[in-house]
Amino acid sequence: MFGEDILAQLVLALGAAMAVGSTLALVRAPRRRGDADLDRPPVARSVVMIAVGVVAAVWALASLTSG
């Protein structure tokens, strides 16, 4: 139904979403926040999540294009 490469497609989508979402959280912090919200997202954790997302997306893209 979804094809043979569904796992690689899911890893590509999740990795790209993790990288883009973490990058946007660092670049565009929310203007209005509640009492329990942080001033900024934790930088170290965000950078690690960006790196993991990029590695997963590149790996999945390589798997999809290699054959």
Structure description:
- The chain is mainly alpha-helical and 67 residues long.
- The protein has one domain (6-28, 40-66).
- Helix content is 69%, strand content 0%.
- It contains two helices and no strands.
- It has helices at 6-27, 43-66.
- Helix 1 runs antiparallel to helix 2 (43-66).
Shape descriptor: elongated
What's the domain count? Answer: 1
Strand content: under 5%
Distance between the amino and carboxyl termini? 19 Å
Topology, element by element:
Layout lengths: L5 H22 L15 H24 L1
Task: Provide tags for this entry.
67 residues; mainly alpha; elongated
Outline:
The protein is built from two helices and no strands. It is mainly alpha-helical and 67 residues long.
